Amino acid sequence: MSYKSIKTEIHDRVGLIRIDRPKALNALNSTVMSELGQALKVFDADAQIGAIVITGDSRAFAAGADIKEMVDATAAEILQSEPIERWDLIREVKKPIIAAVSGWCLGGGNELAMACDMIIASETAKFGQPEINIGVIPGAGGTQRLTRAIGKALAMEMVLNNRHLNAEEACRYGLVNRVVPEEIYLEEALKLADEIAKRAPLAVRMGKEMVNQAFESFLAGGMADERRSFYFLFSTEDQKEGMRAFMEKREAEWKGE
Ligand code: CAA
Predict the structure, then answer these.
(1) How far apart are the CA of 69 and the centre of ligand 1, in A?
(2) Which of 21, 67, 158, 232 to mutate to test the pocket of ligand 1 (most atoms within 8 A of CB)?
(3) Could you report the per-residue pLDDT of 22-78, keeping only the tens digit for each?
(4) Positive or negative: CA dihedral 28, 29, 31, 33
(5) Among residues 2, 114, 130, 185, which is most buried (max CB within 10 A)?
(6) What is the pLDDT of residues 101-140, one digit of tens each?
(7) CB of 3 within 8 A of CB of 10?
(8) pTM for this prediction
């Protein structure tokens, strides 16, 4: 299958998906998310594939959802088009997914990495939820999965004040599995995926399901509330101002309305 904004490869028993919008720091627009969903489905259904790796490039895993695509959306439009709903496809994948992260891993990018089962980070990886800078909040798990992964105090600082974590901090606080030099982060992720792909497939599948059950009990309600709050913020002046200010490369002026 050929795609416009992602690339896929097969490495022995591992399916690799590369997000391919380098000029936009791999911002996750609707094409990327829909193609990512298709590619995951194809790999999940392929009996030759035992594990999947998602990556970006060395500068960015992904710098978030595509702000240019959202800037003018009203709350009604965003509620009707439900852009985050298509992210649920990631959670339906039965095979293990490893995120290989280098460079910026922000907003929706961090949410995508956290929706994967494991994260291998390059030393240059930077994790953050900067939505507060553009007048909104995370909408695809940033307030929910992040809090479970690293705890309330640090999650609050990241969501409310755009605190970034470098790779070493992300590892120390339990967000990522391990940190390796930039030259080998993808190789390391592929190696881990390959090892898992060679294990007993049904046990791997059940193991993933059960660890996720432990992690995700009560997650669904929180994700739905987060999504609604994210959509609601599109009815505010501050969301328009924040996203326009990003595009116009200037400081936002907040009104609180
Ligand atoms: N959406 C759309 N375009 C983006 C983008 C995004 N999230 N992030 C970067 N880009 C684009 C920039 O607009 C720029 O394009 P132009 O060359 O056409 O101007 C290009 O990528 C390169 O970016 P910068 O020039 O800004 O690169 P930099 O090195 O100076 O800064 C950065 C890097 C700090 C990551 C900065 O790009 C940035 O702050 N990006 C936005 C991060 C963000 O706010 N993410 C959250 C998005 S909302 C979200 O994800 C909601 C959700 O929960 C689902």
Answers:
(1) 12
(2) 67
(3) 999 999 999 999 999 999 999 999 999 999 999 999 999 999 999 999 999 999 999
(4) positive
(5) 185
(6) 999 999 999 999 999 999 999 999 999 999 999 999 999 9
(7) no
(8) 0.95
The binding-site residues of ligand 1, defined as CB within 6 angstroms of any ligand atom, are 24-25, 27, 63-68, 104, 106-108, 111, 130-131, 133-134, 138-140, 142
3-state DSSP assignment of residue 141: coil
Q: Quick one: how far is CA 232 from the chain centroid?
A: 21
Q: How far is the CA of 128 from the centre of ligand 1 (A)?
A: 12
Residue 10 near residue 49, CB atoms below 8 Å: yes
Q: Closest Cα to atom 38, ligand 1: which residue?
A: 63
Residue 108 catalytic?
Answer: yes
Which of 65, 100, 115, 189 does the annotation list as catalytic?
65
CB count in 10 Å sphere of residue 181: 10
Q: How far is the CA of 68 from the centre of ligand 1 (A)?
A: 9
Q: Which of 35, 51, 103, 111 is catalytic?
A: 111
E strand residue ranges, 3-59: 6-11, 14-19, 51-55
* Distance from C-alpha of 127 to C-alpha of 101, rounded to nearest angstrom: 9
* Number of residues written out for the chain: 257
Using DSSP, how many helices (H) and how many strands (E) does the chain show? 12, 10
